[in-house]
């Protein structure tokens, strides 16, 4: 499943706010729906800046043990 970073481009929603919401939601769903068969979630990001924000947030979530 692939998700774009919705509204963080032309509509100007701050990627720093969007990343934790998107990542925590996906991680929480996957943790609760192990039997769904979903094996890969891909975030489609535009540009290095968005990538770095998502990478930083994901690293923090993994290190802190947050799954929802």
What would you note in describing this structure?
The protein has about 70 residues and is mainly alpha-helical. It has one domain. Helices cover about 55% and strands about 10% of the residues. It contains two helices and two strands. The protein has helices at about 15-30, 45-65; strands at about 1-5, 40-45. It has a two-stranded parallel sheet with strand order 1-2. Strand 1 (about 1-5), helix 1 (about 15-30) and strand 2 (about 40-45) form a beta-alpha-beta unit. Helix 1 (about 15-30) crosses helix 2 (about 45-65). It is globular and about 35 Å long. About 10% of the residues are buried. The model has no long low-confidence stretch (mean pLDDT about 85).
Shape descriptor reads globular
Supply the number of structural domains: 1
Major beta sheet summary: 2 strands, parallel
What share of residues are in beta strands? 5-15%
Taking all Cα atoms into account, the compactness measure Rg is 12 Å
Helix fraction by DSSP (H/I, runs of at least 4)? 40-55%
Please give the count of helices. Answer: 2
**Span from first to last CA?**
18 Å
Average pLDDT works out at: 86
The tally of beta strands, per DSSP, is 2
Provide the succession of SSEs. EHEH
Task: Provide a quick synopsis of the model.
The protein is mainly alpha-helical.
Main features:
2 helices; 2 strands; single chain; two-stranded parallel ribbon; 68 residues; 53% helix
């Amino acid at each position: 499943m692939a998700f774009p970073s919705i509204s963080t481009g032309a509509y100007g929603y701050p990627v720093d706010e969007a990343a934790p919401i998107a990542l925590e939601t996906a991680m929480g769903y996957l943790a609760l729906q192990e039997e769904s068969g979903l094996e890969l979630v891909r975030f489609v990001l535009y540009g290095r800046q968005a990538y770095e924000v998502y990478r930083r947030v994901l690293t923090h979530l993994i290190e802190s043990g947050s799954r929802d």
